[in-house]
């Protein structure tokens, strides 16, 4: 078999790396801030399935057909009210600060630890284990080749503009 001069051999990993766009540090920080804000907003929104009404004729899993009774008013559990009136983390921190000022104690934001000589721990952005490697494109960390593949397929900024 002869290989023509037009066909070049080489690593597909290197070819894939050339397609990527290297993002600067400010874009990385902006992207991380947006990711955290979207996760925070996702945790704070109302449950869309909380007020779903199922058909009354369908028995529930814990009910028997013979012993099923109808109640006039549906009682709401304490968990319902906790979910309905839950607070954002920034609201909780602000309330703690105000309460600490009136009570004369330290608030959560006033507490600080001393600087340490131990280096920071870095965790994998995919699985959460300790990571040793950093993505060249977006700066997120990963621990294994499997996590790197997951990162490049789903989380990486390689196509970000």
From TrEMBL:
<dbReference type="GO" id="GO:0006338">
    <property type="term" value="P:chromatin remodeling"/>
</dbReference>
<feature type="compositionally biased region" description="Basic and acidic residues">
    <location>
        <begin position="13"/>
        <end position="27"/>
    </location>
</feature>
<feature type="compositionally biased region" description="Polar residues">
    <location>
        <begin position="1"/>
        <end position="11"/>
    </location>
</feature>
<feature type="region of interest" description="Disordered">
    <location>
        <begin position="1"/>
        <end position="30"/>
    </location>
</feature>
<dbReference type="InterPro" id="IPR039723">
    <property type="entry name" value="Vps71/ZNHIT1"/>
</dbReference>
<keyword id="KW-0863">Zinc-finger</keyword>
<keyword id="KW-0862">Zinc</keyword>
<dbReference type="GO" id="GO:0008270">
    <property type="term" value="F:zinc ion binding"/>
</dbReference>
<dbReference type="Pfam" id="PF04438">
    <property type="entry name" value="zf-HIT"/>
</dbReference>
<feature type="domain" description="HIT-type">
    <location>
        <begin position="124"/>
        <end position="156"/>
    </location>
</feature>
<keyword id="KW-0479">Metal-binding</keyword>
<dbReference type="GO" id="GO:0005634">
    <property type="term" value="C:nucleus"/>
</dbReference>
<dbReference type="InterPro" id="IPR007529">
    <property type="entry name" value="Znf_HIT"/>
</dbReference>
<protein>
    <recommendedName>
        <fullName>HIT-type domain-containing protein</fullName>
    </recommendedName>
</protein>
């Amino acid at each position: 078999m002869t290989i023509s001069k037009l066909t070049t051999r080489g690593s597909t990993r290197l070819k894939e790396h050339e397609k990527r766009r290297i993002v600067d540090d400010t874009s990385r920080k902006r992207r991380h801030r947006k990711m955290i804000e979207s996760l925070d907003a996702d945790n704070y929104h109302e449950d869309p399935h909380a007020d779903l009404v199922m058909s009354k004729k369908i028995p529930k899993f814990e009910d028997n057909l013979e012993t099923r009774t109808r109640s006039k008013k549906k009682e709401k559990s304490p968990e319902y009210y906790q979910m309905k009136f839950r607070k954002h983390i920034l609201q909780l921190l602000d309330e703690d600060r105000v309460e600490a000022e009136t009570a004369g104690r330290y608030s959560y934001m006033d507490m600080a630890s001393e600087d340490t000589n131990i280096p920071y721990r870095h965790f994998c952005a995919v699985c959460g284990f300790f990571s040793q490697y950093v993505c060249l494109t977006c700066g997120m960390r990963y621990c294994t080749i499997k996590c790197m593949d997951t990162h490049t397929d789903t989380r990486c900024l390689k196509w970000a503009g």
